[in-house]
Structures are given as structure tokens and as C-alpha cells.
Amino acid sequence: MNISKIIKELLLLLFSLVFLSPVYIMVVNSFKNRQELYENVMALPEQFSLQYYIDAMDKMNFLTALGNSLFITITSVIFIVALSSMTAWMLARTDNKLSKFIFMTFIATMLIPFQTLMMPLMQFMDTISSTLNIQMLNTRGGLIYMHIGFNAGMAVFLYHGFVRSTVPISLEEAATIDGCSKLGLFWKIVFPILKPITVTVIILNVIAIWNDFLLPSLTLTDTALRTIPLSTFYFFGEFTIQWNMAMAGLTLTVIPVVIFYVFAQKHIIKGIGEGAVK
Prior knowledge:
mainly alpha; MetI-like; MetI-like_sf; transmembrane; transport; cell membrane
């Protein structure tokens, strides 16, 4: 066997071990009691028991948190895909200074760190709540609204480039001549062509919104509204950390994303590949 090939395979194996080691530590220690965990983090547990998972689910209020995370993630992604794709299409097909300015504004939102905006954002949302009597804080709707705002920039950027390089104007002109409305033109003709980049947008946003901790921690104070990442934080106290319970909670948090990837990996790989080529 070629020596260079052996070296490459060894390097790949090494990198795989580096990336998989946190997962191993998380899963293995979720089955241990505190004494076992503190004695040797890397060792296998003396006994595999699901009791810590049962306790973690109870203390996290897991089913409620799972429902909140699913509702917030799915609703946010649907609105991001629908609104961003239409916006990007209109901007790509409108050639004037205003459309260019709006597009550059979307790009600018990608460059501003969320940490610089979080306090002004909370003050702004509180002002809306008190002035317009529309509850924006401590509600699922308010959090979804903010997720749409913060994630639309990247989605518009991706859709805009794909529309300009892939969707033929002649196809749109032919549909218009046949009497197709603007809305019908987009949903019946343009949007199906956007499938590869739509898959990419969905993947990026599902992972980002599902794993988000900072924004929900700022906006959701009611325990009944907590998402899974917020519920996991229950095990990290001010003076003590329940590491075995925390590891079980983190494993429960990761499982839905892994299931999503297993069932969607064919479309994920195809979507990312086609999106990158386009």
C-alpha cells in the first residue's frame, strides 16, 4: 500500500477521533453516577442504566421543551424560506438603486454580531410591547419573529445568487405571457427550481435555531416556554453542576438533530452539492 495513502488515512482517523471524542464523553458519562464520573471521565460505566435519562427528562420537562423547540424551529424555518425566497427573487429581478440598497442592507445584517444588538433589541421589543400592546417578550411568537429577522439575511443572500445564476428569465416571461400572476409565477415556476438551495437554507436554519441558547434565554422567562437548550441549563447551578444529568440532557438535545440528519442526509448532501456548484 502507498505510504502517502496510509498517512492520509491515519490523519483522517486522528481527526475523526478528535471530533468524536466529545460525543463519546457526553454519551458515556450520561450513564455514570457522580463518583464514577469524577474518577475517570473516559472510562466506561460499571452499569448502563437509563435512570439518569428518566430523571433528566423529568427535571427538564423534556416533552414540553421538545414541543416548544419543534414549534419554534419549524415555524421559523417555514417563514424564513417563504419570505426570503420571494424577497430574493424580487430583488434579483429588479435592477435599480433601491433594490441594490435593500440587498446590501440584508448583507450588512450578516456582518453585525448579535451580541452588539441584544440589549438594544430587548429594549426595542419592550417598547413595542408597551406602546402597541403586542406582547413580544416571553412569547413563542416574539421569538419566532426575532429568529426570522436575524436569519433572513443569509437566506436572502443565498437565494439571490441562485436566482441570478440558475433561474432563466425566458421561463418567467413565457409564464407571464400565458397569463400567470406574479404570485403564481413564483410558487409554480420559480420556487420548484430553487429546491437545491432551499434544502441548504433549511439545514442551516434548523441547526442554528434548534441549538440557539442566547436569544431564547433573553426572551423566554416562563418555564413552560423553555426550549431544549434552555431546559438543559437547569443542571448548571450557581454553585454545583450535575454533570451526569447534564450529559444525559445534552444527549437528549442532540438526538433529534441526529435523527433529522439520518433521514435527510441524502437530500442534505445533494442540496449542499448542487447549491455549491450553482
